[in-house]
Amino acid sequence: MRSTTINTTLLRPVAEPPKPVSSPDNDAGAAFVLESKGQWWHAGFHLTTAIVGPTILTLPYAFRGLGWVLGLLCLTIMGIVTFYAYYLMSKVLDHCEKAGRRHIRFRELAADVLGSGWMFYFVIFIQTAINTGVGIGAILLSGQCLQIMYEEISPDGPLKLYEFIAMVTVIMIVLSQLPSFHSLRHINLGSLVLSLGYSFLVVGACISAGTSKNAPPRDYSLESSSSSRAFSAFSSISILAAIFGNGILPEIQATLAPPATGKMVKGLLMCYSVIFITFYSTAVSGYWVFGNKSNSNILESLMPDEGPALAPTWVLGLAVIFVLLQLFAIGLVYSQVAYEIMEKKSADADQGMFSKRNLVPRLILRTLYMALCGFFAAMLPFFGDITSVVGAIGFIPLDFILPMLLYNKTHKPPRSSFTYLINISIIFVFTGVGIVGAFSSLRKLILDAYKFKLFSSDVVD
C-alpha cells in the first residue's frame, strides 16, 4: 500500500508556472524582446533607468511655475501617488498571474481586465506617444550635452546642434541592436550609478554657484497674470508627471523570471530610494540658486552663454559626460515597447533570435525607428515642452489613472472602503489635471514655436 501511495503521488501532474497570455511559442515579441529571465534587482535597475534620468535636471524649471511651497508639495504628492500606483499595478499583475494569465504587455492587461477592445488600442497609442517622446527627448538632450562640451573647447566652432544629434542617433542605432530588454540589465545598473553621480555633481555645482561672488540674483516670484500663473502651474505639474512617469511597468515585470509575485515591490523600493536622494536634492539646490530664471536643463544655467561658468569646469564637464552616458540607456529602455511591437509582427519565433530571417528585419526596423526619433529631435528642439506634453497625454493616463482603475476592477474593494475611495479620488483629480495640463502644455508649445527655426542650434525653454 505504501509503495502504491508513493507511485500515485509521483504520477500526479506537477503544477506549472502560468504562461504569458501571448505564448512565446508563437510570439516573437515575447520570446525575443520580453524574455523572462530577470531577478528583482534587475527590475530595480530597469525601473530606476525608466524614472531617474536627466529629466530630473528639469525639476528647478518645473519649480519656477509653482514656487517653493507648491513645488515641494507637488513633488511629494507625485512621488507618493506614483509609488502607490506602481504598487497597485504590480498587485494586479500578480493577481492575474495567480489566475493563470501572466500578462507581459500593458495593452493586453488593460484590455483583459477592463474587457474592452478599444482599451488595447488606447494603451498602444499612449505608449507609442511616450516611447517616441522620450526617445526624441533623450537624443535631443544627448546632442545638447555634446554641444555643451564642444562649445567649452571651441566656442566659435562651426558645428551645430543638429550635427551633434546626428552623431548621437548613429550611436543609438548601433546600441538598439541589443536584442532583448533583459540584455540591458548591466547597462541599467551602470545607469543607476550614473544618475547618482551626476545628481551629486549638480548639487555640488549649485551650492558652489550659490555661494560664489558671481551668484545670480535670486527671484522666486511667479508670473504677474493669474491666468499665466495657472497655465504655468499646470505645465509644471505635467513635467513632474513625466519625470515620475514610467508607462512600461508591465513590460518591466515581464522581464522577471516567473513566478514574479512580490519581486516588483522590491524593485520599486530600490528605485524610490534613488528617487528620494536625487529628486529633492536636485530640485531644491537648482531652484535655490536660479529661481524663476532656471532653464529647462539646469546645466545650461550653470554654464551661461555670457560670463564664466558658475561652478568648476571639471565638475560640470563630468556631470555632462555622466548625463550623456545615461541617456543612451534611457533611450534603449523606452524603445523596448516599440521593438516588441515591431518584432511581434516581423520576426519568426520558430527561428533563432540571431538567425538571418530575424536579424535583417530587426536591423532595418530599429534603424528606421531611431533615425526617425533623431530627425524630429533635430527639427524640433523643445526639450522642456516635449517633457510637459508627454507627461500630460502619456504618463498621467497610464501611471495616475489606469492602475487604480485596474485594481478596483480585479480586487473589487468595497465601495465604502478607504482603498476604493482613495483610488476613485486619484482617478478624478488626475483626469482633470491631465486635461488641463495637456491644454497648458500644448499652448506653451505653440507659443514657443514662434521663437524658433527648424533645425535650430538652440533649445527653446
TrEMBL record:
Residues 37-436 form the Amino acid transporter transmembrane domain. The keyword Protein biosynthesis does not apply. GO terms for molecular function: symporter activity. Pfam families: Aa_trans (PF01490). It is found in: Endomembrane system. Its main location: membrane. One of its GO terms (biological process) is auxin-activated signaling pathway. It is a multi-pass membrane protein. The chain crosses the membrane at residues 43-62, 68-88, 109-141, 161-178, 190-210, 230-249, 269-290, 310-334, 363-383, 389-408, 420-442. It comes from the Eukaryota. InterPro entries: AA_transpt_TM. GO terms for cellular component: endomembrane system. Keywords: Amino-acid transport, Auxin signaling pathway, Membrane, Symport, Transmembrane, Transmembrane helix, Transport. Carrier protein involved in proton-driven auxin influx. Mediates the formation of auxin gradient from developing leaves (site of auxin biosynthesis) to tips by contributing to the loading of auxin in vascular tissues and facilitating acropetal (base to tip) auxin transport within inner tissues of the root apex, and basipetal (tip to base) auxin transport within outer tissues of the root apex. May be involved in lateral roots and nodules formation. Belongs to the amino acid/polyamine transporter 2 family. Amino acid/auxin permease (AAAP) (TC 2.A.18.1) subfamily. This is Amino acid transporter transmembrane domain-containing protein.
